[in-house]
Amino acid sequence: MGSNLTPRQKFIVPFLIFSAMIVVGVRSIYKGMLLHQNWRVALAAIGVVCFTTMLGMMLIQLGKQERAQKK
To answer: Which pLDDT value is given to residue 2?
Structure first.
């Protein structure tokens, strides 16, 4: 059973999940700053960096797939 979805349509759900995790991480950084919890800020910053990197890699891969399909 083949999927009729385009690569961009397949990307919607992971994009929303990773974007939500980035927002949660930023909120956690803010809360950690308010409560003076350095461990929370550090863990949230690591999480934001990781999820942003994964999101960027997915965007690059999507762009490569779209360019390959156009040729």
So the answer is: 65
